[in-house]
Amino acid sequence: MNTPRPLEIAVERHPNPTPADEIAARLTNPVFGRVFTDHMVTIRWTEGTGWHDAKVEARRPFQIDPACAVLHYAQEIFEGMKAYRGENGQISLFRPQENAKRFRNSAARMSMADLPEELFLRAVEALVDIDRAWVPGGDGSLYLRPFMFANESFLGVRAANEYIFCVIACPVGPYFKSGKSAVTVWVSDQYTRAAPGGTGAAKCGGNYAASLIAQTEASAHGCDQVVFLDAAQHRWIEELGGMNVFFVLDDGSLVTPPLSGTILPGITRASIIELARKEGLTVNEAPYSFDAWRDDAASGRVKETFACGTAAVVTAIGSVRHTDGEFSIGDGGEGEVTRRLRTLLTGIQRGKVADPAGWVWNVKS
């Protein structure tokens, strides 16, 4: 039996790449998600043909038909991941296999084409390799955005027969404003992010679009992020607008909401759970209510709270605002457990701490 040959990714270098001195200037203090590298990867899928026409090419706008399915029925998914430059110059990714698996799960939930994990990884690595000059050193990183959307031109409610997978990248610094040791969050009692049976566990654009009104509400109250409660009872804490959440109790244990199908299975979340347990900390994946959070913060039972995700990494929550008032977590700054886990995680990501679990993926040149 003949094994099918893997799809080859053709490389078409940018005819006028950004000069080195200009790249260096843009890497000085990049605004998150505003500065982009020279290239992108595109791969097309059509019914009956499968994946084809894979290439690295100069970053450019897409030309789509007004009837393009994604514009009308929102078949779209994406991932968020980072490339890091170690002190020795080695460029690496953090657990990209998990992004590839989650991408497939999101595609299945949205009834989209199934992208093999191996092809996802080769596409990401190809972009990082050709744009490696854009990977910052120090505390910066290259944020990678693999995404897929329905590209068929038709008006009708069904799964599309054509898709485009693409990877773009942008150099980034901190997600939140520099100098903040902890952020302030707003607890929404009016809007919900996801409901049982919905798309909460998929990384699709619609989830984020639905969250924006709550994020606007949070900003109006002087907050950095919004916290969502469950859709059924408006009681149980689920996650932030773009991050998972952990609570550190006075006995040293951690609590985080369980993956019930309404919460995104964060790769940073999973890594924090594993690292904390290896550090001898107890982690309970269990429901935790907003009332308990407020009362436990007042009594001192909750010592720390932090959010985590690819963009924000590990970020302390210092103050919580809601319709009936406000309360602080601990002294309002970053706690010892939060700092310890953040330092350990970022140390592994940047090659400063041993990686016994094999999470770091070195990019070949």
UniProtKB/TrEMBL annotation:
The modification N6-(pyridoxal phosphate)lysine is found at K203. PROSITE patterns: AA_TRANSFER_CLASS_4 (PS00770). Transmembrane segments: none annotated. Its EC number is 2.6.1.42. It catalyses: L-valine + 2-oxoglutarate = 3-methyl-2-oxobutanoate + L-glutamate; L-isoleucine + 2-oxoglutarate = (S)-3-methyl-2-oxopentanoate + L-glutamate; L-leucine + 2-oxoglutarate = 4-methyl-2-oxopentanoate + L-glutamate. It comes from the Bacteria. Pathway: Amino-acid biosynthesis; L-valine biosynthesis; L-valine from pyruvate: step 4/4; Amino-acid biosynthesis; L-leucine biosynthesis; L-leucine from 3-methyl-2-oxobutanoate: step 4/4; Amino-acid biosynthesis; L-isoleucine biosynthesis; L-isoleucine from 2-oxobutanoate: step 4/4. This is Branched-chain-amino-acid aminotransferase. It is an enzyme of class 2 (transferase). Acts on leucine, isoleucine and valine. InterPro entries: Aminotrans_IV, Aminotrans_IV_CS, Aminotransferase-like, B_amino_transII, BCAT-like_C, BCAT-like_N, BCAT_family. Belongs to the class-IV pyridoxal-phosphate-dependent aminotransferase family. Gene3D superfamilies: 3.30.470.10, D-amino Acid Aminotransferase, subunit A, domain 2. CDD domains: BCAT_beta_family. Keywords: Amino-acid biosynthesis, Aminotransferase, Branched-chain amino acid biosynthesis, Pyridoxal phosphate, Transferase. GO terms for biological process: isoleucine biosynthetic process; L-leucine biosynthetic process; L-valine biosynthetic process. Its cofactor is pyridoxal 5'-phosphate. SUPFAM superfamilies: D-aminoacid aminotransferase-like PLP-dependent enzymes.
